[in-house]
Specification:
Layout: H1 15-31, H2 35-48, E1 52-53, E2 65-70, E3 74-79, E4 89-95, E5 100-111, E6 114-122, E7 135-142, E8 148-153, H3 172-176, E9 191-195, H4 209-222, E10 232-238, E11 243-245, E12 251-254, H5 257-271, E13 280-286, H6 303-316, H7 321-329, E14 332-335, E15 339-340, E16 362-365, E17 369-370, H8 381-393, E18 398-400, E19 410-411, H9 415-419, E20 424-429, E21 431-432, E22 440-443, H10 444-460
Parallel strand pairs: 1-2, 4-13, 4-14, 14-20, 15-21, 16-18
Antiparallel strand pairs: 2-3, 3-13, 5-6, 5-10, 6-9, 7-8, 7-10, 11-12, 12-22, 16-20, 17-19
Helix pairs in contact: 1-10, 5-10, 8-10
């Protein structure tokens, strides 16, 4: 009669498989610290599992495994199902961008014979958490001749790293003492130190010789000149690898688990589908969720309609707008994103009776939003019941969750953009501690149960 929510470790006997899966997840996190690298690594894994580029296929039949890439930042994997797509598709949609620091278009300057680079933070961060930690630089630079140069600095032990120096506590009283927490480090103070040795050049027109020395290094190693920063996407992320956490190694500490924890588990779930599913299965790895799903690689673009329409045309040999609308309206989706786990230190922000806990399984979140459910999807009861039945049928360890107490805060996911297309949608993903920090914490059990939950959805959805 009573709803029982308990720690998943108490009933999970397959610990060896959980820990093995988590090691693979940690390794992937280390390789895929940006949305571009997630897509690049995802393509390699997909191809190794028999997926082929959809653009090379003129027609599709049940069982075909294909992928689509959008501007190097979206990856879609699909397995064509037995049923006509107009009867619906099963989508699992995650985002693979994470909060970070982006270099500005003209970032490099010198002052007091120190070279710095200016950044603009991306997504919701506590800015002070990014000071005085080692940072790595990842990204691409497009040179004037169109050549793409890929950069990764700070991940190998022999690499240099970067940092944002904080002011020492002895002198912080007047500078930071009266600031509110959100301004302990201000946005314009998020600047990385990049060098201190002056160039030996004797040109009298070069006044900033430390800055010039940095440009000499970049030109020598990458062919870059200062103007090339304008056509670059260079991101600063925490340096270092994902680590086991706790004496019992039951947790994972790493950067970017929101939302690459869902990206990886949804990717693995579709790779591990055996045979031909009844409905076409789609894993959609999106970009830009952390800043509102904007742009041509976010969920507000029409890329979902583009690749879905392409699949319809290649399976049916014809296409019209009504076919696409009918397919989307009959489809169902999991918006695979994380929820906030209860931290005992700050448990006052949660309604414990309706809050998620790490180690209690994947979290089903009926609605997110803020205040009066503003900007939420709010899944209908019929669809919640269906998802609940799918999870129970496959003995997946799951729980319900909300994003804090009413009027305490709130947040959003890609769910509302899927629902706007008529797709039945609900949020489902694991809980994290320290979400949006440089070192987020997850439970290994939750990682594994999230994978099992997505796989069950593909199988029974």
């Amino acid at each position: 009669m009573l709803y029982k929510n308990e720690n998943g470790w108490k009933k999970q006997t397959n610990r060896e498989e959980i820990f093995k899966f988590s090691e693979e997840y940690k390794s992937f996190l280390d390789m895929a610290k940006t949305e571009r690298k997630f897509v690049t690594e995802g393509i390699k894994i997909a191809q190794a599992h028999g997926f082929v580029d959809a653009q090379t296929e003129k027609e599709l039949v049940p069982g075909d495994r294909i992928y689509y890439v959008n501007r190097g930042k979206n990856l879609v994997l699909a397995i064509i199902g037995k049923e006509d797509m107009e009867k619906g598709i099963n989508y699992v949609v995650s985002h693979v961008d994470s909060p970070r620091l982006d270099l500005k278009g003209n970032p490099l300057y010198e002052k007091y014979e120190l070279a710095y680079m200016k950044t603009h933070y991306y997504g919701g961060i506590k800015k002070y958490q990014w000071a005085s930690i080692p940072l790595a630089m990842h990204g691409v630079v497009i040179l004037e001749d169109g050549k793409k140069v890929e950069i990764t600095i700070g991940e190998n032990e022999s690499d240099p790293v970067f940092t944002i120096p904080d002011i020492l506590p002895h002198l912080a009283g007047k500078v930071q003492g009266e600031r509110k927490s959100g301004e302990v480090i201000k946005g314009e103070e998020l600047q990385i130190i990049v060098g201190s040795i002056p160039s030996t050049i004797e040109d009298k027109d070069v006044a900033s010789k430390v800055k010039y020395a940095i440009l000499e290094i970049l030109n020598r190693d990458y062919g870059i000149v200062e103007e090339d920063f304008i056509s670059a996407e260079l991101e600063l992320v925490p340096a270092g690898k994902a680590r086991d956490l706790g004496f019992d190694r039951s947790m994972i500490g790493a950067y970017g688990q929101d939302d690459r924890i869902c990206g990886y588990t949804s990717l693995r779930a579709i790779l591990d589908i055996e045979g031909i599913p009844e409905k076409t299965a789609v894993c959609f790895l999106a970009d830009k969720e952390e800043i509102g799903s904007t742009g041509s690689t976010g969920l507000t673009s029409d890329f979902l309609g583009y690749f879905t329409g392409d699949m319809i045309e290649k399976t049916k040999g014809k296409f019209n707008e009504m076919m696409l609308r009918r397919a989307l309206w009959n489809s169902q989706a999991l918006s695979s994103d994380v929820n906030a786990g209860v931290d005992p230190i700050f448990d006052s922000v949660h309604d414990i009776q309706n809050a998620a806990k790490i180690g209690f399984g994947v979290v089903v979140t009926k609605y997110t939003g803020a205040r009066g459910k503003s900007s939420t999807n709010d899944a209908d009861a019929e669809y919640v019941a269906k998802v609940r039945n799918i999870l129970n049928s496959e003995n997946v360890c799951w729980q319900i969750g909300e994003l804090g107490k009413v009027d305490e805060g709130g947040g959003g996911t890609v769910a509302k953009y899927l629902a706007a297309l008529g797709i039945h949608t609900i949020d489902i993903g694991p809980a994290l501690l320290a979400m949006h920090s440089p070192f987020e914490v997850s439970s290994k059990l939750d990682v594994y149960e999230t994978y099992r939950g997505y796989k069950a959805f593909y199988k029974r959805g």
